[in-house]
Write a structure and sequence with these properties.
Helix content is 10%, strand content 41%. With 793 residues, the chain is mainly β. It is elongated. The protein starts with a strand and ends with a strand.
Length: 793
């Protein structure tokens, strides 16, 4: 049962008189009040009612045309509106209500012809609204004033003609005063006859039409809009009906079904699944399940769903059309998530232009696959802003481009987009030359060449040649950071080289081991610090162990094979087999020791190298948190001179902890720990022993002066803190030991074997990395300033 709101009716003294024109009327008098006369006006209309987008008009579902009529309340003395009389056919009666006289006809009213003439726009002599004093003898259907009227196709309307089914409209307020009717009752009903009290109260709460008050068609439309705005109804109609005391207005509402589920139909017309997790939609709308569907709440949920897409980076996701509601309460949302149709590369010059002077597209040196393989976003996937940002960072990190950005072009399918990566290439090659003189090499010249994008394939080629009076040194290296066609970002490096270095193994604290020439043992000119020359080449492969090549892999594995022809030589490049300590007269003061494994001055060393590293640092250059682990095994294959068979095992671990001890400057403070060690099993060529001491070992000692052994262990701790701007400081402590495995050379040179150092360091930021300056004190009381680039560990 629907609630009905009734107007109170007060009885007054009724005077009934029969006028000369046979019309019957009744009037009610109230003291001290301005007497009013209620007149029936019939107005023809041809404009539709104002209608909100997405909402039904009062007459949207009504097909029966009627004439618009209204009960006009006006002062009796007002004669501004002309009165048009219709010949009565029966008596009339009037029913009195307080302060208002409502005149109703008791016979059919022939008012359609008058209305048609009144609404004619071609005649300026006729009024646009006609007021009819009710003298008809049939009941006047005054409720029709609230219903849309039909505009006939002809200029005249027959009394009994069937009106056409055109969509009528009410005259605008600028043309005539909108007619008002008295409301006697307001009811809320449903087509199926049942409506819950909750929904019924929702309607009464928002409508303005009340019993005992007047209303207009515009007000009813506003009420309909207000009922729609509650969100609980799919259709609303206002049905006016005549009653003896006024108009009864019934709001016929179609409630929405109970919401049972919300489903997302992603990317219709494609086979691309939704990018949202399956439970995302239910999490957003679950509180609405089991309740009557409210379109406002549904819209709020859609906003949350849109925000969920945005937060996840799917910025092109868009709702297609209106939600679909089934009879079972299932709401279906069609969402175009922004499927990528194609990924393209567009080259630009330094000025940002895409075409050259001839109007031809700019052609780049870099192969497109080099760029596209860095993009995690592929065609057929959904566009994601976060993914694209990371993709651009990887492309820029190749070092081949001055500028990298992305733009979107429409695809051939309107629901898809083309992603265009715009790049401007930079110069990728360089060459340098120089000359110098040294006591070791004499006069020499150097030339180097670097190419960062060999053949447009992002391969790195480096070549360095040094030609001196005494020898030729070179190093040629080719690196491919991602082998073409490999899905795991496997890289390789191949090189050939001829290098020379003064071995720290033969450096002591006070004396050095020098080369011995058996043909001239006392000639001091033949006594030089041994130079270890390595001629060889090799290839190594490195691969991240993550299955996703676009994610940073904690673990990286490597494997390689290297061959070296190792020889010990003097400053003139002559091969020397042995070395010893000499006095100032050139006489050996120690046993002679071989400088190579074979004793001939030359060895063949073939190594199979395996390694792995795990990187959890927050910054590889200046870590403040995390850890780093590196392990490696080198296994030699006995071949050629020396027939060397050795197994070398090494490990290195660093841990970084954020702290806040001092307040010298703004920036992070860190406690850094490092522990490393290694050992060699089997043969031990003299030049392969471990050395301790120096800027990358125990600071406070000279390079290699602390220990040389088959095994070693080393520990360091640093407190790193900011000072100001680009300057930071460090307090450090280092310890190292050869674990009692000193070599024969270390024993001859009286190296300590173990020791520690401590001190203070300064770090200055530069484009090459931190420039490190450390002042260290050793446990022997000596001090030393060590220089380096980059953190010690």
């Amino acid at each position: 049962m629907s609630k009905k709101h009734l107007s109170p009716v007060f009885l007054a003294v009724v005077a009934i008189a029969v006028p000369v024109d046979n019309s019957l009327s009744a009037t009610a008098q109230t003291p001290d009040k301005t007497q009013q006369v209620t007149e029936v006006a019939t107005v023809e209309t041809n404009q539709p009612l104002p209608q909100e987008t997405g909402q039904n008009d009062v007459s949207a579902n009504q097909e029966t045309p009627v004439l618009a009529k209204a009960v006009v309340i006006k002062p009796e003395s007002d004669s501004s509106t002309p009165a048009v009389k219709v010949s009565p056919t029966a008596n009339s009666a009037s029913i009195a209500t307080p302060e208002v006289i409502i005149t109703t006809a008791t016979t059919p009213s022939k008012t359609a012809q008058i209305l048609k003439a009144a609404s004619s726009r071609n005649s300026e002599q006729k009024a646009k609204s006609e007021v009819i004093r009710s003298t008809a003898t049939t009941p006047a259907k005054t409720a029709q004033v609230l219903e849309p009227e039909v505009n006939p196709d002809t200029n005249s309307t027959q009394e009994n003609a069937e009106p056409p089914t055109a969509q009528p409209t009410f005259p605008s307020n600028s043309e005539t005063t909108e007619l008002r009717v008295l409301v006697s009752e307001v009811a809320v009903t449903s087509p199926d006859g049942a409506i819950s009290p909750e929904l019924e109260n929702q309607v009464y709460r928002v409508i303005r039409t009340q019993p005992g008050q007047t209303t207009t068609r515009s007000q009813l439309q506003e009420d309909i809009n207000a009922i729609f705005a509650t969100g609980f109804f799919s259709n609303v109609r206002a049905v006016p009906e005549d009653t003896p005391v006024g108009v009864r207005v019934s709001f016929v509402v179609d409630p929405n079904p109970v919401l049972s589920k919300v489903e997302v139909e992603a990317n219709p017309g494609t086979d691309v699944p939704s990018v949202l997790p399956t439970n995302t939609v239910d999490k957003i709308f679950s509180e609405q399940y089991g309740r009557i569907l409210n379109l406002r709440d549904l819209q709020e949920g859609i906003k949350q769903l849109t925000k969920e897409y945005q937060d996840r980076g799917y910025v092109l996701a868009n709702l297609i059309g209106a939600p679909k509601v089934s009879e079972t309460g299932v709401v279906t949302l069609q969402v175009a998530e922004g499927v990528v149709e194609d990924v393209k590369v567009r080259f630009r010059n330094k000025e940002g232009q895409e075409v050259d002077e001839k109007g031809e597209p700019i052609r780049g040196r870099t192969k497109e696959y080099v760029i596209k393989r860095e993009l995690e976003l592929k065609s057929g996937q959904v566009f994601n802003r976060n993914t694209v940002q990371k993709d651009l960072q990887r492309v820029f990190g190749l070092g081949l481009f001055e500028d990298v950005n992305v733009s979107l072009d429409p695809g051939t399918d309107p629901s898809k987009v083309d992603v265009v990566v715009n790049v401007a290439e930079r110069s990728s090659g360089s060459i340098a030359a120089g000359a110098g003189i040294s006591s070791a090499s004499g006069l020499f010249g150097t030339i180097s060449y670097q190419q960062q994008n060999l053949g447009g394939r992002n391969q790195k080629l480096g070549a360095e040649v040094q030609l001196g009076e005494r020898e030729l040194l070179f190093d040629l290296r080719l690196t491919d950071p991602w082998i073409a066609g490999d899905p795991y970002r496997t890289s390789y490096t191949a090189n050939i080289f001829r290098r020379r270095s003064i071995s720290l193994i033969f450096e002591g604290k006070d004396d050095n081991i020098e080369t011995y020439n058996p043909n001239n043992p006392t000639n001091t000119n033949d006594q030089d610090r041994p130079r270890i020359t390595r001629l060889g080449g090799g290839v190594s492969f490195t691969r991240p162990l993550s299955p996703n090549p676009y994610e940073k892999s904690e673990w990286v594995a490597s494997a390689g094979l290297q061959y070296q022809r190792v020889s010990s030589r003097d400053a003139d490049g002559n091969v020397r087999r042995e070395g010893a300590r000499f006095n100032d007269n050139g006489q050996p003061i120690s046993d002679r020791i071989p400088l190579t494994q074979s004793g001939t001055g030359e060895d063949d060393l073939l190594l199979l190298q395996l390694g792995a590293q795990r990187d959890r640092r927050n910054n590889p250059l200046q870590p403040t948190n995390g850890s780093y682990l590196r392990v490696g095994v080198d296994q030699s294959v006995p071949i050629g001179s020396g027939n060397i068979f050795l197994t070398r095992v090494r490990g290195n671990y660093s841990q970084y902890l954020p702290v806040n001890f001092l307040s010298f400057g703004k920036g992070p403070q860190t406690l850094a720990f490092n522990l490393q060690g290694g050992t060699i099993l089997g043969d031990l060529p003299p030049y392969e022993a471990f050395t301790l001491g120096g800027s990358n070992s125990v600071r406070g000692y000279d390079e290699g002066r602390l220990a040389t052994g088959r095994s070693y262990v080393q520990a360091s701790v640093e407190y790193r803190f900011p000072v100001f701007s680009v300057v930071s400081g460090a307090l450090f402590f280092d310890y190292g030991s050869d674990l009692g495995s000193s070599t024969r050379a270390a024993e001859i040179l009286n190296k300590n074997g173990s020791g520690y150092g401590y001190g203070l360091g300064v770090r200055v930021q530069s484009p090459l990395g931190p420039i490190r300056i450390d002042y260290g004190l050793s446990d022997d009381g000596d001090s030393r300033i060590n220089f380096g680039i980059g953190e010690r560990f």
